[in-house]
Amino acid sequence: MARVFVYGTLKKGQPNYKHMINTAKGLAKFQGRGHTVEKYPLVIAGKYNIPYMLNIPGTGHHVAGEIYSVDEQMLQFLDEFEGCPDMYQRTLMRIQVVEWEGKGGAGEARAAADGVLECFVYSTATFPPEWVGLPYYDSYDSSGQHGLAYVLRESRE
Which position among 82, 99, 118, 154 bears the catalytic label? Predict the structure, then answer.
């Protein structure tokens, strides 16, 4: 099992969460909530209002999200879903645990108690330069005050 940190449309209550609970795509088990140890710019960009964490460490905010334990099948699905490696790149990042529900092995429990876990995160280093000038968020909600509702893939032209 691999650990994945999601910060956008795959979180509970967000438009693509349905994929995280679709066992036909693989297994994903909610473990807890956290935020990036380093600061990153989280922007909402493009005509479909997609959230992107720009891979510019030290800029932006500590981005909030959810930690999941996923099997290889789900990891492969997420790679495809996230357009990896073209649109997003899956990299390891350090995540500060804020709330933990996970029931893993002793090593995982110790790591969670320590407060920092290494998780795969889908961020992007392949973005238009003007995205750096967009507003930065510390947390994503498709129906947030920003007014930039995410456009589901099935609703795109």
Answer: 82
